[in-house]
């Protein structure tokens, strides 16, 4: 499932091709995604493309008419979606559901499981119901030790659940939460109100380090976005604990264990994480 670093890699891959262009045509082959695709074929042609932004795991394509922003295309990759920039005459393959044509190219959405979304809003996208209640971006200054301490100090839920709550902070998925907690020496099931301010400071720093590194690694293969079989340069995880149950901890040699926390499998080192 694409997480924040993969979505940011996608944004960086498509933005240079889209920004400053004009939509000339839209092809919708499959309208039934997570929500029905609106009539973007009637809306987008003739609109200029402004910035391509990201909020959490949503891609925001700003659309302009003259000097006035008239709306935003909101896209989510769901469980299996991907976006590629291709020559406009590239024959579609199975699961290629939407083409957004500009110049001699198109932005093509492929989504085998159809859990993705393509939506349109004329309001500021941050006011859209899907985005309005989201927490701060993890790489922003708003996500800091004081903020996390204030959110954690009265909660008795596991710290990993807090870290993966999009209303607290966006985009810290299972892999990145697991790795950040390991680097901070915090057991994933430790209660939020039992984690000290010093350790929360370490956790904030490690979340930023892990996500920034994942984005950096993903960004090394941006050329793939122009290939027919192009896929985002997903972070090739050099994982310390995630998915390594029963293997030796790279730090101390203890066997990695796993447990269910909030219906998600959480791997951890019982020696390094307390």
Short description:
The protein has 274 residues and is an alpha+beta fold. The protein is built from six helices and ten strands.
CATH architecture of the largest domain: Alpha-Beta Barrel
Helix/strand class? alpha+beta
Summed up, the helix count is 6
CA radius of gyration:
20 Å
Topology-level CATH name of the largest domain = N-terminal domain of MutM-like DNA repair proteins
- Rounded mean pLDDT score: 91
Give the distance, in angstroms, between the N- and C-terminal Cα atoms.
29 Å
Q: Percent of residues in beta strands?
A: 15-25%
Poorly predicted regions are 219-229
Note the topology.
Blueprint: H1 4-18, E1 23-28, H2 40-43, E2 48-55, E3 58-65, E4 68-76, E5 82-87, E6 96-102, E7 105-110, E8 117-121, H3 145-152, H4 159-163, H5 174-184, H6 197-218, E9 257-261, E10 264-268
Antiparallel strand pairs: 1-6, 2-3, 3-4, 4-8, 5-7, 6-7, 9-10
Helix pairs in contact: 1-6, 3-6, 5-6
Walkthrough of the structure:
This protein folds into two domains: 4-127, MutM-like, N-terminal (N-terminal domain of MutM-like DNA repair proteins); 145-268, Helicase, Ruva Protein, domain 3. With 274 residues, it is an alpha+beta fold. The protein is built from six helices and ten strands; from the N terminus they run αβαβββββββααααββ. The chain starts with a helix and ends in a 6-residue tail after the last strand. It is elongated.
